[in-house]
Design brief:
By secondary structure, the protein is an alpha+beta fold. It has two domains: 252 residues, PAS domain (Beta-Lactamase); 136 residues, 2-Layer Sandwich (Heat Shock Protein 90). Helices cover 60% and strands 17% of the residues. It contains eleven helices and eleven strands. The strands form two sheets. The chain has a six-stranded mixed beta sheet with strand order 9-10-8-7-6-11, covered by helices on one side. A five-stranded antiparallel beta sheet has the order 2-1-5-4-3. The termini are far apart. This is Histidine kinase. InterPro entries: HATPase_C_sf, HATPase_dom, His_kinase_dom, sCache_2, Sensor_HK_TwoCompSys, Sig_transdc_His_kin_sub3_dim/P, Sig_transdc_His_kinase_MctS. Keywords: Cell membrane, Kinase, Membrane, Transferase, Transmembrane, Transmembrane helix, Two-component regulatory system. It is a multi-pass membrane protein.
Length: 474
Amino acid sequence: MRRLTDRLWQNYGQKLFLTATLPFIAAAVVIAVFATLQSRHLADREIAALESQLIHAKREELKNYLAMARTSFINIYGRAAPDDEAAKLAVTQILSSMLYGQDGYFFVFDYDGNNLVAPRHTDLIGRNWSGLADPEGVPVTDELIRLAKQGSGYHSYEWVKPSTGKPAQIVTYVIGLQDWRWAVGTGVFIDDVLATVAAARADVEERVRRSFLFIGGFALVALLVVFTSGLFITIRERRLANAKLKRLTQRVFDAQEEERGRVARELHDGISQLLVGVRYALDMARRRLVAGDDRAADHLDKGITHLAGAIQEVRRISRDLRPGTLDDLGLGPALKALTEDFSKRSGITAEFATVVFRNRLDPEAKIALYRIAQEALTNIERHASASRVTIDLRGHRRGGTMRISDDGLGIEAARARTGLSPGLGLRNMQERIDQLDGTLRILSSSAGTVIEATVPLSHMLPPEDDSHETKVNA
């Protein structure tokens, strides 16, 4: 009988242990995988943007170099006949002498594939290189000639780097001198760009690995605690476990916010300054060229305009990742700016109203409400087919409430029309508001959707008496 009792007690303890541990293990694995995938997805997207911006800067640099080279021989070329050998010789001598940096030079191929200028690769001069390809099989000479015949263009392939004597990835820009049937170009090696991107990717992978191991270690420690105290689990201990899981989820969100802030600083302090520097270089080149060819100056003016747009785009990305107004001025001004940007971008009429908070929300509440507003506006723009959106933010005796309403076709109708299954957007909203012990209400019908997020008074400083209402049409 005693053996039977002990056996039943062991079975009960095992069942209790499995009941307590299996959901915890599943939740920890889901959170770890979700956090890893989200971090890697965000990092991959930002690294891709970083690589694109760096290569764009390199391309603009090549355009600038070739514009300066063209200015140096345009007078000779403009006055020469198609068969003027003396003029051709003079231009080849000019281009052969124009070297820059350790690896920079200008090259010339005629449309038959013969190399005429290659000061850092003299073994190419005077020989026909039709059909030349790089080690990966990418055509070189034929593609450069094809782009030159079309007027101009970029081409990327592997080429021997003069300073190292080893193959490296290069981006070239080529233009065509149609009267002489010449392809004139220059290139810049992007191995430094690729190294920067590779280092950033390796750093991201290391951080993701550490985060995964941290979550796994935390889960293992919690599992051991549950194992040793599994027979004595009570309702109070279950509540403590829920609190631990909530803190773990908050850590995941905090890590995401920290990563967004870091990437934003890198984009702003790195790429923005680089593009500004290129813009100043182009502007200086324009001033020098004004005295010569006016068309070149117009071309450089256009380049400056494009670079200014790129700088503005970098700043926009930085602001979207972590708006400065959220920390400096509070949630109200940040939501106002978000509403105005949304209206300009989507063409949907947006209205923002608030009772001034005077920055009295704590950081967790500000971030959560701002991200909920971002997610809601994104869903409205993509799926709701709405013509008007209203965001209302105000404080009251129970805390603070943000209400977002639109006149779209509703959540169910949008899902039926697009065929999309419920995504993570609404789930993320609910999880963010749960971390604040707040409430999230979603009311949707064919007349529109209303999302109402409320944070408790514990996340606000005591309200002031002189608050007043402001209303802004975006």
